[in-house]
């Protein structure tokens, strides 16, 4: 695996600015946001590389049959093209790789996590005119085609296999132990997809304490999304303390405590104590 080195501070700040601008756009571009996530991880990814990734998505879309028919026909055409001919799919080992969460690397390797492979499916299908959207099943992201009454689900991680109703139920039961709720089959918002990708990156970094740098930029990008859990501010503060920036981390903890105090004063007191402990590390 090619080692990934983050960009320098100035380039990183520029990518974050662009990420924030795109996230606040009237119609955020999912592929652009994913590529900007990749640019935070990989200092070798520049404007030319991002353009090349978009061109590759265009090329893949151009190789699809022209409007093959209804939702099932679209699903089959995508599976034959991306899964069979191009070899896009996932393996258990992909969960251990950071590049499995980076769109430009998934396009290069043709391997990735379910949600990134789903992004490839969605972006290629969208360009070709398909009625496509992401479906955020708990624990396993998939792709949907067509309106609810004709919905066809596919699993890009399994090469685009068309899922039956029992297949989807098994995926949810395996992830949560609970039955499939119809609300889980609704189209996922692009910004929610990006947040889920960033959460996956944070989970990867959490298992590797030496990569707290990755966890930090992932949570900072998450905070740039217009809607995000308030808890992310606490997570960022903790990461700053862990990385030795005690003063900034303590300041962030105090600010988070003020937010929490409105609903849970005992919890706010615990956070304030953490802030004092962080400042004490300066002595």
Write a concise keyword list for the protein shown above.
4 strands, four-stranded antiparallel beta sheet, 283 residues, single chain, mainly alpha
Multimerization state: single chain
Shape assignment: globular
List the uncertain runs: none
Helix content: 55-70%
Radius of gyration: 20 Å
Brief characterization of the structure:
By secondary structure, the chain is mainly α. Helices cover 58% and strands 5% of the residues. The protein has a 4-stranded antiparallel sheet with strand order 1-2-3-4.
Give a description of the structure.
It is a single chain. By secondary structure, this protein is mainly alpha-helical. It is built from twelve helices and four strands; from the N terminus they run H-H-H-H-H-H-E-E-E-E-H-H-H-H-H-H. It has a four-stranded antiparallel β-sheet. Helix 1 packs antiparallel against helix 2, helix 10 runs antiparallel to helix 11 and helix 11 runs antiparallel to helix 12. The protein starts with 8 loop residues before the first helix and ends with a helix.
